Amino acid sequence: MRFIDEATIRIRSGAGGAGCSSFRREKHVPFGGPDGGNGGRGGDVILVATNSRNSLMELKGRPIWQAKDGTPGRGTCRTGGNAEHVEILLPVGTRVINDDTDEIVIDLTEDGQRFIVAKGGDGGFGNMHYKSNKNRVPTKCTPGWDGQECFLRLELLLMADVGLLGFPNAGKSTFISRVSAARPRVADYPFTTLTPKLGVVDMGMDGSFVIADIPGLIRGAADGAGLGHRFLKHVQRTRVLLHLLSMGPDEAEPVLDRYLAIREELVRFDPKLARRREIILLNKVDVCSEEELAEIRALLKEAAPDRAVFVASAVTGAGIRPVIMHLWNLLPELDEE
Fold this sequence. Notes:
Elements: E1 6-12, E2 45-50, H1 57-60, E3 64-66, E4 86-91, E5 94-98, E6 104-108, E7 114-118, E8 149-156, E9 162-165, H2 172-179, E10 197-202, E11 208-213, H3 228-232, E12 240-246, H4 255-269, H5 271-274, E13 278-283, H6 290-303, E14 308-311, H7 320-336
Parallel strand pairs: 1-3, 2-4, 9-11, 9-12, 12-13, 13-14
Antiparallel strand pairs: 1-8, 2-7, 5-6, 5-8, 10-11
């Protein structure tokens, strides 16, 4: 299945059924009086969050969601039938935005969460409703109330405990395939990963946590370069950032420059991201010298003194376990903050 994280749909709830104007007509009942029933209620459009979906692909092929109208009232005091509600199943982590006003309607963050995004119209009143001591023979009835209609923009933001950051070819896909059952495409050229991937790190009887492999960022990502906005938005729902920096000899820029460049993109996209807990991982250390590694660690400690710096090789697996254990011990601390 293709990973689709954006979609625009048009939704419309059902209108209420019209009220009925009717009078009782039976043999030997000369003054039957009004007996027109009220109209039925139109159907609601309801958003339902579910863990059984992981993409918005289904909505790409169905851009219009419309509930049915309520049925009209009838004579002999019969109320019209209410229309069935329409439920739209969305992956957990979907943000719903009004496409006309750009206002956030709802964030669906829990499995089973339900939200009525468009209420169906109430049914109209039949003439029986208007009967009173002063008006014993009312003929008035009203049409049903209209339903609601709007365009919604849906954005799927991955829900993960840890988000992997880094320039293209930093080794993020290799790392997530090493620590979880996820099997993203791995190759020795940039932009191998084109869509975010999730992996579950199994900690045995103690539990597990989720890591999101975010496609490589580049300079100007906060302005949309390289689909930067689509990638950066997935970082917003992660609790910890694991920033991978490649120590490979084929990197054109110094390690510190690459680190500061990604940090600048985070600040420009969302200043809150810059304050999120972050761990630095120097990857591919199996292809660099000890002197070079010590120099880079010293520079990073000076530039980011409050961040833990780890060294590892995702290819060989060396140094991976300490990083995973540090993340595992850090996550409960975030729950208490």
